[in-house]
Amino acid sequence: MSKAGLISLLGLCSALLPFIGIPLGFKTALAVIFGVLIFALGFLIREERKWLLRRLSGDHHTEAYTENGLPVRDHTQTGVHAYGQTIDKAE
């Protein structure tokens, strides 16, 4: 079932909850559970929508960590250390 369908079902259950003949403590627990689930599903839908809009507008970039922007080279093939220092291969 989709997230929107689950939100609709939980909303219906929340609306019918006061009219069900179950003990008050159980009703309260169910109301809290339904509320938390509706909140979580709403949050997920909101995040998916934001992600989709960023993706469609071309602003979606992965957040990659870079330390200082210096190019890292493989010192075994180029003779340059990862910190930009040249390595003397004669040693």
Provide an overview of this structure.
The protein has 91 residues and is mainly alpha-helical. The chain has a domain at 3-57. It is 57% helix and 0% strand. It has 3 helices and no strands. α1 (3-16) packs antiparallel against α2. The radius of gyration is 28 Å and the shape is elongated. The termini are far apart.
Topology:
Elements: H1 3-16, H2 24-57, H3 75-78
Helix pairs in contact: 1-2
Strand content: under 5%
Which class do the helix and strand fractions yield? mainly alpha
Could you give a short account of the major beta sheet?
none
As a percent range, the share of helical residues equals 55-70%
Task: Quickly list its features.
91 residues; mainly alpha; 3 helices; 57% helix; elongated
